[in-house]
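[job 0417] fold request received: Transposase Tc1-like domain-containing protein
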Amino acid sequence: MPRVPAHFAECAIGMLQGGMRTADVARAINCNARTVRRLRQHYRETGQTADCLRSGRPRVTTPAQDRYIRTSYLRDRYRMATITARVTPGTHNPSINAQTVHNRLREVGLRACRPVVRQVLTRHHRQQRRLWAQTHRRWTRQDWQKVLFTDVLWFCLTRGDGRICVYCQRNERYTEACTLERNQFGGGVSVMVWGVVSQDHWTELVVIAGNLNAVHYKEDILLPHVVPFLQAHPEMTLQHDNATSHTVRSVCDFLQGRNVSVLPWPAKSLDLNPIVYVWDLFDRRVRATAIPPRNVRELAGALGNISQQELANLVQSMRRRCTAVLNAAGGHTRYRLLLLI
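[job 0417] inference complete; emitting structure tokens
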């Protein structure tokens, strides 16, 4: 029997029970008279107007094949669906294809998505991260308030951040409206900036000319910005990563000679530094401007500022970050990580 909407079927039964002719009912609900007669016969036999359950399309995989597909992707998350469809055991049903594999994975909650990009962590890196988290997880909020978190970032308007999408119709992918122009080897308006944050302090961004080597780091950042600030706040501790410009002997001797306390930091641990969130916030803010900056000065001025409450929330997240590292056995955490520098 052809499918009839539920409300039309109920209206048809009501009209028939009211004494209307079959042809009049069919004309009223805009269907064939034979459909109305079958609907009346179905109502007499079952007492309802809903259709009976239908078998639908037969399932092309067996329960054993479903378990094989699920287990294969739990072991190898990067496995191609076409390969799985070809090597799935059971040749009695050759109709298994990539779409069938996607359907079975979707039934168990596995969906294809872009992988999250993270830095390469060796066994030594994981061990050092775990030991650092064990040492600092019991630090109180007052302890983290005394840390100056620093980092550098290269802002470039022509850099692709992976968040740009274009919506196009069929055969429009290579049209001018759907094409994004970008220099292959960089270019455009760009600037390297250095910043420092703590729960109670936020300094202005320092624009760095050229590359940040040990000489520039000592003469352009430490001497005019970091040392005067730490002399005014002797209880504060400096945090910087293990970049070569930060760990060379000349810089270490410079900091030691001025009694600057440096927080030990594990290698490849950008996800532990709360200032990375500030960089991402500024990066989104620059890209959201109505008029893109045309030079370095406008680009540096468009970075804006961050509220004190946001800074406090970031610094207070350090204990949670340490716990996340311990739960991951020194591996990657869910905290934002930008590979922009």
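[job 0417] notes: The radius of gyration is 32 Å. Residues 214-232 form the longest helix (19 residues).
[job 0417] exit 0
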